[in-house]
């Protein structure tokens, strides 16, 4: 298990790959973001997106999956108090394959709960062409080694 001490400033962890399917884009949109440019090819072509695209929130869910697979599942994560920002930089399309990285920007122990470490992380995702599609920063709470033992 990776504890707080295993997330030093500068650590980079690869994320992905995550293949994006048309079926998944349509299913997510139908359930959670049923806007025409996420569900209908013709409407999507006529939109600013210029074609069928995954919901930004779906892209966040894909990123979360990559985070769980990349480092969260085997960590002492206690969740997050929030996200500083998310930016959707390009549409994510069916047929794309997403990859990326998580970088630790800051790390410190909690003053009020020293058994918890606070890490500020940055995620960057790209498509198969290397084009940036999403960036975001957030805080992750992790148990320290002593607390996890």
Automatic annotation (TrEMBL):
It comes from the Bacteria. Residues 17-111 form the MaoC-like domain. Gene3D superfamilies: Hotdog Thioesterase. InterPro entries: HotDog_dom_sf, MaoC-like_dom, MCH/BMMD. This is Enoyl-CoA hydratase. It comes from Aureimonas endophytica.
